[in-house]
């Protein structure tokens, strides 16, 4: 397995990204677009990408908040310490707000095009926290290029807004998997029910599971929310999805 930091030209600038490749064949391996959580590109994201790459996939993790700066945009705070937490979220909020649906779709085309230079299509997307929402919008905008979409402890997939992601379920062609966090205010039981109803009405192939007892952020070993059992379950489900959909 080999990895490097790369730069992706977008309509609005240049996004830095982490690219991890499997060892072995010189032929293009299947590609996975890894959509980070709000804490950004950091060693934990690299570890997760590398683990996926070791299974034979090319993995690209863009810094989706590149408009606010190169990674790391901010140092990981101690979320129990208001002196660190409050300034962190005060800066993070505007960076996330700048990532509009239109910009996600535009950026998504650049990410997929870059990945196509190193990997075979169609691709899979795996997203975490806000990355689940970002991944959904890319998969809905480019259904012919995305064969699988996984979202873990994703937030904001169902909102009251007219452009809520769940309202575009019919635009998806990917097989979908959702590993919901327990007691997650960004994806409540009511939200999950509404999401599943939208997917059924659209005739999409999906699995939607609640990871009982696992908090929002359960895959991230550099946060207090980390749950090793839930994180390992996530990898098992992700690899099964990738094998069904994009693996050779």
Q: Cα distance, first to last residue?
A: 18 Å
Cα Rg: 17 Å
Beta-strand portion reads 15-25%
- Tell me roughly what share of residues is in helical segments: 25-40%
Mean pLDDT: 95
Output the structural class: alpha/beta
Count of helical stretches: 6
Low-confidence stretches: none
Main sheet summary = 8 strands, mixed
How many domain modules? 1
**Element order, helices and strands?**
EEEHEHHEHEEHEH
Strand order of the largest sheet: 1-2-4-3-5-6-7-8
Name the quaternary structure.
single chain
CATH classification class: Alpha Beta
CATH superfamily: Alpha/Beta hydrolase fold, catalytic domain
| CATH T-level fold name | Rossmann fold
Total number of beta strands: 8
CATH architecture descriptor text: 3-Layer(aba) Sandwich
* Form type: globular
Keywords:
248 residues, Rossmann fold, eight-stranded mixed β-sheet, 6 helices
Per-chain topology:
Elements: E1 2-10, E2 13-21, E3 29-35, H1 43-53, E4 58-62, H2 82-97, H3 101-116, E5 119-128, H4 130-141, E6 146-152, E7 175-181, H5 189-202, E8 206-211, H6 228-245
Parallel strand pairs: 3-4, 3-5, 5-6, 6-7, 7-8
Antiparallel strand pairs: 1-2, 2-4
Helix pairs in contact: 3-4
Explain this structure.
The protein has 248 residues and is of the alpha/beta class. The chain has one domain (2-245): Alpha/Beta hydrolase fold, catalytic domain (Rossmann fold). 35% of the residues lie in helices and 24% in strands. The chain is built from six helices and eight strands, in the order E-E-E-H-E-H-H-E-H-E-E-H-E-H. It has an eight-stranded mixed β-sheet with strand order 1-2-4-3-5-6-7-8, with helices on both faces. Strand 1 and strand 2 (13-21) form a beta hairpin. Helix 3 crosses helix 4 (130-141).
